[in-house]
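To start, an entry.
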Amino acid sequence: MDRIEEQVMELGFSGMGRRDFLKSAGKGIALTAATGALLSASQKAYARPRDERIKQIASNSYAVNSLFKRRSRGLSTRPMSDAQKARMQELEEFKKKYGEITMLDFPQWTKDTYPGVTKMDLWDPLFGDIDDESQFTNRGFDPSLPSSKRYLDKLADKIVTTGVMAKHISNNAPRSICEEDEEARKEGIRVAKIWLDAAKQIGVQSMRVNTGGPRIAPSADTKEGYSRNREIVPYLKRAIESFKEMADYGEKVGVKVTIENHWGIAAHPMNVRIIVNEVNSPYCETSPDFCNWEHEYMLYHGLEALIPLASSMVHAKRWTRFPDVDIARCVHILNNANYHGYISLEYEAGGDVVAGTLKLMEDVVAALI
């Protein structure tokens, strides 16, 4: 019996193994989704009690990454501008106010900071013991290393003892997923697989993998006298092939692979739909972000295009780039699609990130039904 199973027993969940316990929190939301589909239009006018709606909310470690302790290795030594110095001073004040944390602290910190929230969305660069270089390579935290696996067991212990579950990893580590360089593409898939193993180890249900490709997707030309986009087709073909392989592996370990509108070829919702539909696996789906779009009209129409293909995670975002995003309108799109997965609070609008996240949480919860 390993440590996490021992703690399951200690907490009174006898008969549950690691997998059963870590998946148990998801059963209620699945039941909610099933019953929600049966509600009539008139019934939907009445929102669930607040404590039920808040069960869909997840904290987002990226949103508060400025509070996290960082490895000194690799930090920039370039001189800072006055504005950067002022921002650093502001961040230090926030650390004094809210505490400086690590990923091992984040479950309890979530519980203490966001009342009622018991789910987490974790950003990959924040994983690892910053004092143990054996867990890192030049690519950052490597979850396949022996010391890293022990670290992940510690994180799983924190998850069990706090009851704050990790539901999603917003992962930037797998790269080159649709690149022409075949060796780089295969390396990106390899990295995704070891992270899927790590996700299973801590009970995560879904993990974002970026499509890669050029940050600005190729567009059509009229060389043949009419509009045609030949350049993007090879990127889509390679992305489909890569996500098929990752989804097959995800099915083996029980973790979904998701595609977020996260720039490159994924900046356009149709490209994301093409990849997900061509992969055609329950272990490959979308995880839409409210604001990662190239123009204002995408804010709502892009979300409408992707939400039917999502069941695990959505990023609710308030961002300096689109400061006037209508959070209620975005949430109504989720309501209309009968979305009952999790909603992560990715606040990026400057100032006090914790206060901003709390306000975003209240706006999302108020609009949910």
